[in-house]
Write a structure and sequence with these properties.
Blueprint: H1 5-15, E1 30-32, E2 35-39, E3 42-51, E4 61-68, E5 76-81, E6 91-97, E7 102-110, E8 113-121, E9 131-132, E10 136-143, E11 155-157, E12 160-164, E13 169-170, E14 176-183, E15 192-201, H2 209-216, E16 224-231, E17 236-243, E18 251-261, E19 267-276
Parallel strand pairs: 13-19
Antiparallel strand pairs: 1-3, 2-3, 3-6, 4-5, 4-7, 7-8, 9-14, 10-12, 10-14, 11-12, 14-17, 15-16, 15-18, 18-19
Length: about 280
């Protein structure tokens, strides 16, 4: 039928995968902040989604579409139900993909009101040395309880419950909770991993790789700087941490993590932009 919103979504995704030609008068903003991690099948994309307003209610379904870049019109890759609209995330999308390039579209429509969020995923080569996941920003990270189900809005990973945020934004005084992983680690006896975290003023465009080297080396001022030495028992490793923001001025910041393999000196860096209000 002409008003089948799933069909409309597929057509718009095909014609212009990063835009929507639907009438903007009924559009409701969607916040989302995807993070990509490795798993046995290839990659898992975890995306907290926030849709606010009185139009959508608990139980309304969010459609997930995954399209191979340059590929045919996608069929739906399943639905997830909105959980709560009083706090974010409203829903948590979890999609498994291989290492090729994809486009992801998360869409919901109710009457004349609709909301959509889309993003690209680059192809990766998982065989290349020491590497990292994205930095997942969260409002809460706590140890999981085996006797309880994972709470709504939280992702379970490595015996942790993580509540990711749908917007890289924190209030001054609020803890920045962080989770990230490293892969391709040399786990032979005697090996370890040094993990450094720095928070620098300015967005990612203002903090080039050359400056990151000075920040990690202590040759340039950082706002926040912490370091951990972790024992490694396998070729992958997850680490959570919490950064204080009480002394930070409002503005844009770059959070960067550097992993250094103690046995070889190999390094890998990942970073994410965030804002303090």
């Amino acid at each position: 039928p002409r008003d089948d919103w799933a069909l409309i979504a597929k057509e718009q995704f095909r014609d212009n995968p990063l835009e929507s030609d639907l009438d903007d008068t009924g559009r409701i903003d969607m916040l989302l902040l995807p993070s990509v991690f490795e798993n046995e099948a290839g990659r898992v994309v975890v995306t907290p989604v926030c849709v606010r307003g009185a139009t959508f209610v608990r139980g309304d379904e969010l459609q997930q579409y995954v399209r191979r870049t340059g590929g045919p019109i996608p069929s739906t890759d399943g639905t997830i139900s909105l959980q709560t609209l009083r706090t974010c995330p409203s829903a948590l999308s979890e999609i498994e993909i291989d290492e090729k390039a994809y486009q992801v579209s998360l869409e919901i429509r109710k009457g004349e009101f609709w909301s959509v969020g889309r993003f690209d995923l680059d192809a990766v080569d998982g065989s290349q040395g020491l590497r990292t996941s994205d930095i997942m920003l969260a409002s809460v990270i706590e140890e999981s309880l085996p006797e309880r189900e994972t709470p709504e809005g939280m992702w379970e990973r490595n015996d942790l419950w993580i509540k990711p945020v749908a917007e890289a934004r924190y209030k001054r005084g609020q803890f920045i909770h962080v989770y990230a992983e490293a892969y391709g680690i040399d786990s032979r006896e005697g090996g370890g991993l040094t993990i450094q975290a720095v928070l620098a003023e300015g967005g990612t465009d203002d903090v080039p790789s050359s400056r990151l080297g000075r920040l990690f080396g202590g040759r340039d001022d950082t706002i926040v700087s912490v370091s951990f030495d972790d024992d490694i028992q396998s070729n992958s490793h997850g680490r959570s941490l919490a950064l204080e923001t009480g002394d930070l001025a409002p503005g844009l910041y770059t959070l960067a993590l550097r992993y250094t393999e103690q046995s070889t000196g190999r390094q890998a860096v990942t970073r994410r932009e965030l804002r303090i209000d």
